């Protein structure tokens, strides 16, 4: 027995001890580099797997439950900095003790790369939720926003100070600035003012050496890269200086649904030809779902909801819609006037009665609570899809496993056609009629095989191939999809694989991103499954 026991100990204890030592060394490094006044509150800063609040801190900012399973990797340590120096210490100690590091602001990453890792390597999560101050300068129409702030907090804070200022942020109130601007970031105002990254005028970043850099000290290359080059590649962005934009005191919203029996197919088909006639100050979008999602599969039909926000009064919008899209058959009752910030609530499906809901990071719409796991993908449409193409989508949407599938279409055009593809890394500009995102949701339970849903999504994506952008088939990095590049023939090098998703997310901007990465972080400290690789990385 004795020798067997020894073998057991020797073959299995070494890696465990090593990891535990790394872990202890890292924690010692962290506590010694935090000031003594911080040590008192170290339990509010550092959560190890043994901390009683570890799971709640980890899971409170996981927006895709696909990554909270017994087999999901979990960070060794979560650090929730209260001060910039804590971020610097975490970078320094992770580097020193060979731990990987993931940065999380709002935790909305579709593939969870801000808090799970596909590799076995132990890692630390820096969670910036406490770094969320917002400083608005109404006179100069700018704001400094820390990365941990959510969209709702800025919308709310701006609305408190002005009815005619806004920010071109996300549709959903809970998305945080860190990942959103790192992805480019589009929303209600993007056809008039561009994506969020187009409206960033300065930023503060901590690089791999722990230096705090601003636009001037980081230089224009790095400042370009962080505005849409995907998060988690270049450093940790602490805060962003953004331009606020003008909106009228009153905007108009309409939302109207049509089933297949009410000619949804013909209306959608027609919509594709007229989006360019919609004024810039309009956000024309369509959500496609199926009805009777929970009963049985009989009598299901496809429903297209035409949702729009318009920067102007109803009496301007009504004749405009009558002129451009009479087929939709809107009636006066379909239109509602409200403030811009109220339109965020209405189109975000939040209860419209109190604006304070925008400040609630844990508030989620009921269907997100009911089906917290999802898989999503995105595409860009450059020529109208024929009606027969839509028929094929409907037959997939009406399959039994697709009850919770949703397609979202957001019209492009407006100023998006005028901003050059190389202005910031986000390249999806002129020539797109609309972007389409596909989502399927479910609840992980013992008897649910999530592969059914994921396979359904992949099948739909295959089906869409002839109708969407080609060479490359573009995709939005904000809707990260780890399938991309996984199975494509790429010469098998990690750089080759990266260039597959890299060209889809960034088109020709990928090469410049790689050059900048090579300069700023040649040893690839800031990395995840789809971070920008350095040459030879
Ligand atoms: C419900 C929902 C609604 C959405 N709506 C929109 C929308 O309307 N428009 C749109 O464009 N996108 C939208 N998105 C996509 C969203 O913008 C991206 O998922 C974005 O990356 C989320 O940012 P986050 O900080 O919340 O996520 P995180 O998971 O925290 O971060 C995402 C990525 O950015 C990195 N990162 C985070 N913070 C930093 C930082 N401070 N410095 C450097 N890297 C960082 C992370 O490491 C990770 O790679 C939505 C997503 C969800 C889940
Ligand atoms: C720690 O305390 C010192 C002196 O009281 C103070 O100057 C410093 O700002 C504090 N550090 C932090 C991170 O709060
Ligand atoms: C743990 O969570 C509880 C409840 O949310 C809170 O009261 C407590 O302060 C937290 N403890 C730490 C160490 O963060
Ligand atoms: C659908 O379109 C047809 C032909 O264009 C039209 O006759 C019919 O009234 C429409 N149905 C509805 C419900 O609008
Ligand atoms: C939904 O199903 C119910 C019965 O299951 C049916 O009466 C109803 O017409 C269906 N609704 C639609 C829009 O198909
Ligand atoms: C489906 O609709 C048809 C008529 O459209 C109706 O006769 C039938 O009862 C419905 N089935 C269910 C399950 O509701
Ligand atoms: C925020 O939303 C959550 C989830 O809906 C709810 O439980 C909580 O009470 C809300 N918090 C506040 C302050 O309203």
TrEMBL record:
Report the cofactors.
FAD
Start and end residues of each FAD-binding PCMH-type domain: 71-247
Q: What is this protein called?
A: FAD-binding PCMH-type domain-containing protein
Q: Which keywords describe this protein according to UniProt?
A: Cell wall, Disulfide bond, FAD, Flavoprotein, Glycoprotein, Nucleotide-binding, Oxidoreductase, Secreted, Signal
Pfam families on file: BBE, FAD_binding_4
User: Can you tell me where the transmembrane regions are?
Assistant: none
Of which family is this protein a member? Belongs to the oxygen-dependent FAD-linked oxidoreductase family.
Q: Name one GO molecular function term.
A: FAD binding
| PROSITE patterns per UniProt | FAD_PCMH
Species name for this entry?
Answer: Hibiscus trionum
PANTHER family reported for this sequence = OS08G0158400 PROTEIN
């Amino acid at each position: 027995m004795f020798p067997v026991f020894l073998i057991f100990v020797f073959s299995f204890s070494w890696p465990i001890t090593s990891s535990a030592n790394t872990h202890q060394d890292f924690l010692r490094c962290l506590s010694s580099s935090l000031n003594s006044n911080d040590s008192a509150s170290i339990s509010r800063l550092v959560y190890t797997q043994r901390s009683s609040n570890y799971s709640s801190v980890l899971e409170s900012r996981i927006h895709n439950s696909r990554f909270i399973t017994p087999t999901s990797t979990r960070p060794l340590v979560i650090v929730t900095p209260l001060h910039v120096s804590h971020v610097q210490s975490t970078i320094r100690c992770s580097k020193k003790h060979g731990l990987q590091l993931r940065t999380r602001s709002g935790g909305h990453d579709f593939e969870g790369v801000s808090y799970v890792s596909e590799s076995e390597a132990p890692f630390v999560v820096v969670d910036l939720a406490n770094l969320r101050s917002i400083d608005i300068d109404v006179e100069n129409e700018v704001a400094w926003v820390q990365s941990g702030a959510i969209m709702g907090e800025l919308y709310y804070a701006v609305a408190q100070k002005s009815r005619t200022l806004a920010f071109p942020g996300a549709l959903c109130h809970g998305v945080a600035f860190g990942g959103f601007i790192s992805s480019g970031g589009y929303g209600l105002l993007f056809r008039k003012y561009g994506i969020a990254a187009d409206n960033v005028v300065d930023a503060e970043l901590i690089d791999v050496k722990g230096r705090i850099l601003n636009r001037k000290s980081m230089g224009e290359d790095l400042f370009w890269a962080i505005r849409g080059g995907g998060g988690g590649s270049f450093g940790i962005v602490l805060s962003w200086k953004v331009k606020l934009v003008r909106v009228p005191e009153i905007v108009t919203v309409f939302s109207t649904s049509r089933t297949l029996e009410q000619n949804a197919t013909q209306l959608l088909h027609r919509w594709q030809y007229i989006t360019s006639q919609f004024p810039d100050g309009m956000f024309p979008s369509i959500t496609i779902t199926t009805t009777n999602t929970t009963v049985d599969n009989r009598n299901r039909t496809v429903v297209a909801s035409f949702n729009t926000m318009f920067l102007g009064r109803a009496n301007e919008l009504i004749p405009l819609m009558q002129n451009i899209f009479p087929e939709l058959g809107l009636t006066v009752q379909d239109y509602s006037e409200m403030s811009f910030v109220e339109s965020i609530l209405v189109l975000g499906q939040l209860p419209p009665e109190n604006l304070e809901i925008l400040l609630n990071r844990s508030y989620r719409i009921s269907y997100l609570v009911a089906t917290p796991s999802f898989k999503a993908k995105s595409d860009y449409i450059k020529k109208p899809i024929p009606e027969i193409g839509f028929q094929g989508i409907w037959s997939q949407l009406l399959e039994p496993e697709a009850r919770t599938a949703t397609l979202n279409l957001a019209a492009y055009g407006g100023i998006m056609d005028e901003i050059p593809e190389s202005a910031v890394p986000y390249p999806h500009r002129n020539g797109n009629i609309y972007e389409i995102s596909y989502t399927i949701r479910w609840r992980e339970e013992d008897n649910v095989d999530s592969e059914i849903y994921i396979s359904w999504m992949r099948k739909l994506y295959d089906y869409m191939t002839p109708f969407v952008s080609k060479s490359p088939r573009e995709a939005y990095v904000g809707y990260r999809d780890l399938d991309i590049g996984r199975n494509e023939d790429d010469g098998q090098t990690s750089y080759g694989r990266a260039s597959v998703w890299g060209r889809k997310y960034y088109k020709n901007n990928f090469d410049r991103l790689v050059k900048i990465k090579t300069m700023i972080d040649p040893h690839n400290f800031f990395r995840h499954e789809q971070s920008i690789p350095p040459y030879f990385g």
